[in-house]
Amino acid sequence: MKKIKIGLLGCGTVGQGVYKLINLNKTKYVSLLEGTELEIIKILVNDIKKERKDIPLSLLTLDPYEIINNKEIDVVIEVIGGTTNAEKYITEAIKNGKHIITANKDLMATKGQNILELGNKYAKLVKYEASVAGAIPIISTIKENLVSNQITKVMGIINGTTNFILTKMFTEGKSLENVLKEAQDLGYAESDPTSDVEGLDAARKIAILASIAFNRRVTLSDVYVEGITKISVDDINYAKQFKSTIKLLGIAILKDNAIEVRVYPTLLPLSHPLAKVDNEYNAVYLEGNAFGDLTLIGKGAGGLPTASAVVADLLNIAEKINKGIIEVNNCSCYLDLEIKKIEDTCSHFYFRMVVVDKTRVLSRIADIFADNDVSIDSVIQKKLPDGKAELVILTDRVLNKDMRCARKQIENLDVVLEIKSVLNSEKEY
Ligand code: NAP
Ligand code: HSE
């Protein structure tokens, strides 16, 4: 039987998922590939002695060059994570004639262009569907199925850990700290979960999606990022009063030949398709000039869901190897569009502040908003003990830099004791 031989770099959550899936659907894959079998022949790990259910010890190695220099291996799957070793091993593997599959958004959002171009140079395919939104086939959907459109907006819940945390805060009133441990135990979080809760993981993914959607290379440093660490159950309860929820969104917009790209916790009306996406589920909402809008929902993390995307890339490459036709065009970024600064973008805003509970406070705040062209949509006021009150204000859609000026002036008012939070709100979509 003809075989396509695979080297697996990494055997953690995703690596074990890939091994399991290739065996689970072996019969289907053999018939899809007209008799060719997929076989993992070597697996790189850090610690051979770790418990790994169903993985034969004989496949494990501590030496990456048993894979990179192995002449039998056609495809290298990188699921070790991180950037330094992953970049080194992928680069060397391409130069040694291997096709590459990676789930590594850290790497693709920072060094993606170099890797894709190196693949082009050596006529080797580089596929990375699993790097964004786990099981959701979002990269191939944008690149292939929706290629007839001009995409104008990509808005996604693209981090399972933070969606899990925000869902538990919304439904069970639990605090962020309490739920993060649960998300880690379930295998959703990154090895360093600060990249989940501080929004970096989502920023890497939206950089990748913006690059593909707008044919303009967007890297991590182009993305404005705020995480969820400052979100409290109080904010979530106020959001409910505005018939909204709070989700960490990655947003990329193409407007007037310029790109906006950002990640932040956002008040989202409960009627929006993304508002109903809970727990570790991811979803990507797209707008385009022919399809209108569409939303893809699925599991964004975990072994088998992520393996689903990795193995789909593998089958795609295997089919090409089988047919002997390898047309390599890894990179589709050929435009040079401006990327807007966050200050020059528009949004609705949510302000929550503690003020002195006396007359004229609200009117002084409203005056500052008006002086800065920030129009108010609605207000909630709640009495607090000790002569204080909590004010929650939703603005209309305003320029970010106007909101920032207003915020500075409001902060300096003697009657404003503390600005508790300022969040973006996606009231219109
Ligand atoms: P993980 O559970 O931490 O597994 C990493 C694996 O790589 C482990 O087997 C580890 O070996 C091995 N490894 C790491 N560095 C190594 C090195 N320098 N040399 C040799 N072996 C090394 O990570 P994961 O969750 O599977 O994630 C892997 C990649 O997929 C990351 O890029 C991640 O961002 C991405 N991803 C993950 C998910 C998810 O749901 N987890 C979803 C989508 C994408 P030991 O087992 O010996 O420690
Ligand atoms: N830590 C990531 C998440 C894993 O929570 O979505 C999937 O990329």
How would you characterize the overall build of this protein?
The structure is a single chain. Helix 1 (13-24) crosses helix 12 and helix 5 (105-121) packs parallel to helix 10. The chain is 36% helix and 28% strand. The chain has three domains: 3-132 and 303-323, Rossmann fold, CATH 3.40.50; 138-299, 2-Layer Sandwich (Dihydrodipicolinate Reductase, domain 2); 343-425, ACT domain (Alpha-Beta Plaits, 2-Layer Sandwich), CATH 3.30.70.260. Strands 7, 8, 9, 10, 11, 12, 13, 14, 15, 16, 17 and 18 form a twelve-stranded mixed β-sheet that branches. It starts with a strand and ends with a strand. It is elongated. The protein has 14 helices and 18 strands. With 429 residues, it is an alpha/beta fold. The structure holds NADP nicotinamide-adenine-dinucleotide phosphate (NAP) and L-homoserine. Residues 10-15, 44-47, 50, 79-81, 85, 103-105, 130, 134, 187, 190-191, 301-302, 306 line the site of NADP nicotinamide-adenine-dinucleotide phosphate (NAP). The site of L-homoserine has 11 residues, from helix 7.
**Count of structural domains:** 3
* Rg, Cα atoms, Å: 24 Å
Low-confidence stretches: none
In which range does the helix fraction lie?
Answer: 25-40%
- What shape does the CA trace take? elongated
| Residue-averaged pLDDT | 96
Given this structure, which CATH class of the largest domain is correct? Alpha Beta
Give the structural class.
alpha/beta
Q: State the CATH architecture of the largest domain.
A: 2-Layer Sandwich
Number of helices: 14
Number of E-state strands: 18
Largest beta-sheet characterization: 12 strands, mixed
By CATH, the superfamily of the largest domain comes out as Dihydrodipicolinate Reductase, domain 2
| Ligands bound to this protein structure | NADP nicotinamide-adenine-dinucleotide phosphate, L-homoserine
Distance N to C terminus: 53 Å
Q: What fold name stands as the CATH topology of the largest domain?
A: Dihydrodipicolinate Reductase, domain 2
Strand proportion, as a percent range, falls in: 25-35%
